[in-house]
Amino acid sequence: MAKPRKTSAKAVDVADSYAVRLMQHLVVPTFVIDPKRRVVIWNRACERLTGVPAAEVIGTTKHWQAFYETRRPCLADLVALDRPEQLPEFYSEYAARGHNGLGFSAENWCVMPKLGSQLYLAIDAGPIHDEAGHLIAVVETLRDLTDQKRAEMALKELATKDGLTGLSNRRAFDQMLMSEWARAQRTQKQMALLFVDVDHFKLFNDRHGHQSGDECLRAVADVVSRHAVRPLDLASRYGGEEFALILPDMECDAACAIAEEIRRAVMALRIAHGAAGAGDHVTLSVGVASHIPTECLFQNILSRMNRL
Questions:
Q1: How far from 153 is each of 107, 146, 205, 224, 239, CA to CA, in Å?
Q2: Of the residues 9, 32, 77, 245, which has the maximum number of CB atoms within 10 A of its CB?
């Protein structure tokens, strides 16, 4: 039986040198850190992607500065530290591919300080071990998905925005309502719903025409949107001349005050109406509900509000 051939130190050095040269010339942006998280390779494609020369990061732990304005770990750091539990803290989309040497994958918006513009990057980071199983390096590769992500966001916006008013559409309202209803059930906090209806809108359209009707709806939408000021508030066009507001963590008195502000603000616009059976100016009817959600309330509230 032939004996296993020993690899000479010279052959190993040649292989290592070849691997380094190969990595330097990869078209995929790549960098490598050692177990102490110091950069040992920052290839040319990585220089082009980040605008950061290799000389600025080689031998340092400052690779994060190429991607972020404040100090935080890159994906390679989390692999080196074996911290899969921190992935949700730092990445919007991620996958830990187990503890068997396969590393992590993630996607995230990165600030890219040297470029002065954000990039959406797909990131893969995997460990390299020696024959004894000890970590000797972590390789991180990067793919720029900014154009694809922006196209995806634009399509999503088209699917969730009302074309006439720019508010969220009924689909977005229904999705947000289900999400916030479930959250309020878990936290046992009140949430408020406002349903806004333009009074005698069909008569307005018949008298003034559809173009004026569209202008009226846009004006009302502008007023409604100005009252969705907190991060989770949602103003939407519910359908036709109806608008709706989701106001999480809000009690009835506060919601009623907002409803009155909206009603008065539209009256102050003094949009001429004058059709038979209507007043001189456009007015609103606003329905308000505020509850700690339960399952039986969900359909009941929607049914009652739709009848207002």
A1: 15, 10, 34, 24, 24
A2: 245
In a domain, 67, yes or no: yes
CA separation for the pair 308, 17 (Å, rounded): 76
Q: Which two tokens stand for residue 9?
A: 């130190």
Query: Where are the alpha helices (H) located in the chain, listed in sequence order?
Result: 9-24, 44-50, 54-57, 75-81, 87-90, 146-160, 170-187, 201-208, 210-225, 252-269, 295-306
Domain match, 240 and 298 both: yes
Q: In the prediction, which pLDDT does 24 show?
A: 87
* Cα 181 to Cα 247: distance, rounded to the nearest angstrom: 11
Does an H or E element contain 143, and which? strand 135-144
What's residue 302's pLDDT? Answer: 62
pLDDT tens track for 188-229: 999 999 999 999 999 999 999 999 999 999 999 999 999 999
Strand partners, 285: 197
- CA dist 219 to 79, 164, 223, 245, Å? 53, 11, 7, 16
Name the residue range of residue 279's domain. Answer: 161-306
Positions of the chain with pLDDT under 50: 1-12, 14, 99
CB 66 within 8 A of CB 57: yes
- Domain-embedded: residue 1: no
CATH no. for residue 131? 3.30.450.20
| Whether 173 and 100 share a structural domain | no
The answer to the question of residue 3 being in a domain is: no
Percentage of the chain lying above the pLDDT 90 cut? 70
Tell me what pLDDT residue 97 has. 65
As beta bridge partners, residue 194 has 245, 288
For residues 79 and 176, membership in a common domain is answered with no
| pTM assigned to the model | 0.60
Catalytic positions are 241
> For the chain, what is the domain count?
2
Nearest one of 249, 254, 220 to 237, comparing CA atoms = 220
Using alpha carbons, select from 70, 25, 75 the residue that is nearest to residue 46: 25
